[in-house]
TrEMBL record:
SUPFAM superfamilies: alpha/beta-Hydrolases. Residues 1-20 form the signal peptide. This is AB hydrolase-1 domain-containing protein. Keywords: Signal. The keyword Signal applies. One of its GO terms (molecular function) is O-acyltransferase activity. GO terms for biological process: lipid metabolic process. It comes from the Eukaryota. The lineage of its organism: Eukaryota, Viridiplantae, Streptophyta, Embryophyta, Tracheophyta.
Length: 435
């Protein structure tokens, strides 16, 4: 019973996601590309692109590293932009409040992650692309890594918000758990996504939907699809165009997890260590095998040694256990979505492949050994899609498209790369497959 109130503290989309009956809505017009009979698109953006609103209830008590004044607005029913509020995060007087309220805790009784007590959150503008990327984010004013430019280009080929173009933002702090374990945030997201896809299809004469994802959005989509019934997938999903996602994680987070151990209490980097997300993209044993990813004089850490690595960079025994029992099975369990799929990825950009902390001091910047990839995603991880997805006898259509010199976010914002992605989306629209 203890866990019940928390179900109400999370998992809402704001405003609550209701769908109108498509029949009352105006008919669809294709302004350009009349030759292509467009299928509706649902976009899933990358990590941290989705906005969160929050409200503090009477239950909220600032933690010891946050000023007591952080609770000043509690119990007043006032909703505010918690993520990403660049103004607040840049203001030393209020930033510690925001980082305190963004924290996630693992609730042993509920066996799930949840918000800190007294913080209610909801994902802004579910169903649309309007909540993709903050317009108050000094680090990315163009929202280039959040599909902002892509939605403009999709508009040029006839996609219209709310008619045949939809967005599925999600609370990036939370991730899927292995089937059978509780993951309320992911469960709520997939329920909303399922209704959104059905709505998008209904609104477009029953045409199945094309899912277009970037980065972590691809992991969310694949987990969603592999847990959907085959008849539902066949009826509602025409194609998955997955941009910049590999089958086996990446090396980059190992560097940020080491660095964040030394970030000051109350900083955003510290808060982010509490998110289930931080373990989600770690290199999987299936793809990276026993290659030394972190090298020190005394010992090396391969993908098999991630539990020891996490302990070495300050995670508690319980947190390491959460990695082992919740994140790892999802990482190594990555499998074919069993809908027609095009994977688009960048290569030819130096990408961290090995981190050398020779004297074993993780507080110092490592010497980075670079390999091939898009700057974030290692090439080996996307190439693994050829076997994990391409060789699955039940997969059907699978195509991998390499874009040379496309960076991780440039692939959805640089003109030359976007053109390729768009042409793959048009091809997915035209394709007919044997089912
Ligand atoms: C961002 O945070 C500031 C400072 O707390 C607040 O005044 C502002 O309303 C927030 N922005 C939004 C969009 O809610
Ligand atoms: C660690 O990996 C490096 C680089 O591959 C290798 O040269 C070294 O022998 C390894 N060290 C240990 C202790 O296994
Ligand atoms: C990629 O970039 C490199 C370095 O700028 C350049 O030499 C090469 O021609 C580019 N390749 C393509 C296919 O654009």
């Amino acid at each position: 019973m203890d866990a019940l109130p928390f179900l109400l503290l999370l998992l809402l989309s704001c405003p609550p996601f209701f769908l109108s009956d498509g029949s009352a809505l105006p008919p669809l017009h294709h302004h350009a590309y009349a030759a292509v009979d467009l299928h509706p698109i649902v976009l899933l953006p990358g990590n941290s692109c989705s906005q969160l609103d929050a409200e503090l209830t009477e239950q909220y008590e600032p933690s010891s590293s946050a000023p007591a004044s952080c609770g000043a607005g509690k119990g007043k029913g006032r909703w505010f932009r918690l993520w990403k509020n660049g103004t607040a995060l840049g203001d030393p007087a209020v930033a510690p409040c925001y980082t305190d309220q963004l924290r996630v805790v693992y609730d042993r009784a509920a066996a799930d992650y949840r918000n800190v007590a007294g913080v209610r959150t909801c994902v802004v503008s579910f169903g649309t692309t309007r909540g993709f990327g903050s317009d108050d984010d000094p680090s990315d004013p163009e929202r280039s890594h959040c599909f902002k430019k892509m939605t403009q280009v999709l508009g040029r080929i006839g996609y219209r918000e709310g008619e045949n173009l939809f967005g599925a933002p999600y609370d990036s702090r939370y991730v899927p758990a292995p089937p059978g374990m509780s993951a309320m945030a992911f469960a709520a997201f997939t329920a909303d996504l399922r209704r959104l896809i059905e709505h998008a299809s209904r609104k477009n004469g029953g045409k199945p939907v094309i899912l277009v994802t970037h980065s972590k959005g691809g992991l969310m989509a694949v987990e969603f699809l592999t847990r959907s019934a085959t008849p539902w997938r066949r009826r509602f999903v025409k194609h998955l165009v997955m941009v910049s996602t590999g089958a086996g994680g990446i090396v980059v987070p190992m560097q940020s997890l080491a660095a964040s151990a030394y970030a000051p209490p109350g900083s955003l980097a510290r808060t982010e260590r509490s998110y289930g997300t931080v373990f989600a993209a770690l290199p999987s044993t299936k793809v990276f095998g026993d290659a030394p990813l972190v090298v020190t004089r005394r010992r090396n850490y391969s993908a098999y040694d991630i539990p020891e690595f996490l302990a070495a960079v300050g995670f508690s025994g319980e947190e390491v256990e959460l990695y082992r029992t919740r994140a790892l099975p999802v990482n190594v369990g990555f499998r074919a979505p069993r809908v027609p799929m095009t994977a688009v990825y960048g290569s030819g950009v130096p990408t961290p492949e090995q981190l050398v902390y020779w004297d074993g001091d993780f507080s110092k910047a490592p010497e980075v050994v670079y390999g091939d990839g898009d700057g974030s995603v290692n090439l080996v991880s996307v190439l693994a899609l050829n076997t994990v997805v391409g060789d699955d006898p039940e997969q059907g259509f699978f195509k991998a498209v390499k874009i040379v010199n496309a960076t991780h976010s440039g692939i959805i914002s640089d003109e030359f790369a976007m053109k390729r992605v768009i042409s793959e989306i048009l091809e997915a629209n035209r394709a007919t497959y044997d089912k």
